[in-house]
């Protein structure tokens, strides 16, 4: 399978993959917890760089949300296009199978007609044979040789 994604597509897939993972969530919780701890506790006042109400943290969170959302949407749009293409292929396959089924059903119906015609012909021959046998019995001319002769005549027809 060839990868025909451009650079932007690959970046959006990487961001979406990482941004939608538990690894990202736990890392983000860790970073925010460390940020708040460092900037709140008196122990770290010498290195505090974003005192409450954490304006810089809010700016960073807004920045992450502003850039992460379009990447996720691009990745989802591409995934949706792939899914649509897969559904279209599946629909075409189903349509072909339905057409094959209809063709087979028509063929079966035609074979059924042929078999019924042949069966009617056999019944007609059987009726003729029975009538000939009844006539022979009625004339009391029926013996073993004449029955064999009648049957052989029927097989030849």
Spatial separation of the terminal alpha carbons:
65 Å
**Structural shape:** rod-shaped
Order of helices and strands: HHHH
Question: So how many helices?
Answer: 4
Estimated share of beta-strand residues: under 5%
Whole-number average pLDDT? Answer: 88
Query: How would you name the oligomeric state of the polypeptide chains in this document?
Result: single chain
Judged by helices, strands and strand pairing, the structural class is mainly alpha
Describe, in plain words, how this protein is organized in 3D.
This protein is an all-alpha fold and 157 residues long. The protein has one domain (7-156). 82% of the residues lie in helices and 0% in strands. The chain has helices spanning 7-19, 22-40, 55-138, 144-156. Helix 1 crosses helix 3 (55-138) and helix 3 packs across helix 4 (144-156). The chain is rod-shaped and about 135 Å long.
Key traits:
157 residues, mainly alpha, 4 helices
Question: Which secondary structure elements does this structure contain, and how are they paired or packed?
Answer:
Layout: H1 7-19, H2 22-40, H3 55-138, H4 144-156
Give a quick summary of the entry.
By secondary structure, the protein is an all-alpha fold. It has helices spanning 7-19, 22-40, 55-138, 144-156. It starts with 6 loop residues before the first helix and ends with a helix.
